[in-house]
Amino acid sequence: MIIAIANSKGGVGKSTLAVHLAAWLHEQGHSVTLADCDTQQSSSEWIREAIPEVKTVRLDNPNDILNELPTLGQETDFVIADGPGSNTETSRALLLRADFAVVPCKASMLEVRALAKATEVLRQAQDIRAGAPKAVIVLSMVGKNYRLTKDMKDAATALNLPLTETAMTLRQIYADAPGQQSVVGQLGSRASEAAAEVEQLFREILPEAYRPHHAAPVTQVTGS
Ligand SMILES: Nc1ncnc2c1ncn2[C@@H]1O[C@H](COP(=O)(O)OP(=O)(O)OP(=O)(O)O)[C@@H](O)[C@H]1O
Ligand SMILES: [Mg+2]
């Protein structure tokens, strides 16, 4: 399954979400590739340091994305494609190949109002592909006392995009994690709320990928 993390707006939390989703899927026992489709290449570097078992590839031009994503999609259970913050052609290629799109959106009225523009290439792809890729909006960098106002729900409904119930809260630990070569789940008790939040989010958006009883493969012990 190829999952694109896409919003043609910059700095909305795409790479943070992509790296945590790749880490969570790996933790559930799936094989995972992180396809870094941003020329800044921050997410591939981050996941390589945090979870070296996740395969990484850099695909930062539309041709490579169109040509190589399907093959990559067959090599591992999941490909998480971290989209760029501005290059529309790269996002377009990604959304023409993805099975599912996760659209992080900052939880401010201005951002939500700009959502129609930010999701234009997604709608074009859905139009061409008879509704694919299926997509959800995840509110990101949500303030503590935030309430999902009717306006925000209306904006998402108008675009025919479901909003996840779980949002990603604005927390310093998310911004600190790459500097610690880690994802929040590796940062102990000071990151426990963030770790619980991403776990809940990913179970909500990918219930079929959740493996409650997964344990790491047992290493064979020889002798007695
Ligand atoms: N939930 C959060 N709480 C606090 N800081 C966050 C959160 N999510 C992301 N950040 C920080 O906000 C900045 C932008 O996030 P990120 O790089 O994930 O966005 P992006 O959409 O990938 O950006 P770009 O479009 O430039 O690729 C980073 O400094 C990141 O550490
Ligand atoms: Mg990014």
Helix content: 40-55%
Distance between the termini: 42 Å
C-alpha-based Rg, rounded:
17 Å
User: Total number of helical segments?
Assistant: 10
* Strand line-up across the major sheet: 3-2-4-1-5-6
Report on the biggest sheet.
6 strands, parallel
Number of domains: 1
Any idea what the CATH superfamily is called?
Answer: P-loop containing nucleotide triphosphate hydrolases
The name of the CATH topology is: Rossmann fold
Query: How many runs of DSSP E, i.e. beta strands?
Result: 6
pLDDT < 50 runs, ≥5 residues = 218-224
Tell me which ligands are bound: adenosine-5'-triphosphate, magnesium ion
**CATH architecture assignment:** 3-Layer(aba) Sandwich
| Overall outline | globular
User: What is the CATH top level name?
Assistant: Alpha Beta
Q: H/E series, N to C?
A: EHEHEHEHEHHHEHHH
